[in-house]
Amino acid sequence: xxxxxxxxxxxxWADLEALFGARGACGGCWCQVWRRPRAEFESGKxxxxxxxxxxxxxxxxxxxxxxxLLAYAADEPIAWVAVAPREHYDYFxxxxxxxxxxxxxxxxSITCLFVAKAWRRQGVSSQxxxxxxxxxxxxxxxxxxxxxxxxxTAKAAPVFLWTGTAAAxxxxxxxxxxxxxxxxxxxxx
Length: 189
Fold this sequence. Notes:
seven-stranded mixed beta sheet, acyltransferase activity, transferring groups other than amino-acyl groups, transferase, alpha+beta, 189 residues, Acyl_CoA_acyltransferase, 7 strands, globular, single chain
């Protein structure tokens, strides 16, 4: 199946709202857990609706900031991938596990992947990840990386797979960054 994958800036906000639903994909996150300082994120997801996080994502969307891509099947939004310059994500400023190498410039990060339930386990993730890497490079990225989850079972709960799986990244042409054994994996493509 061939998907139509478009930059967020070229898509109606209502399409992301339709895909994410009232709770912003997961517990009021609205794809802000990596972007916002921890206290702002937690405050923004109060009551699980995530009104504050939703407002921040909508503000960035309207400003046409690099946010990510929406994937469509027959004009229906079915998947989202967040990809932007690494410095746009507050998470990396506070992380010890994924602390960036200051010598690396032009790094774009894939931080979130959300696929509508009816479309999961059909190869959508790998197509969207490939499109995200291609788009980031077209925007000037030197390096595109993601931080997948390594599920312990074949039927891991989707709520734990929001950064994508290693298998999906590999199917999209990414490979594990060497030297990270025993740490959270970093895949580059």
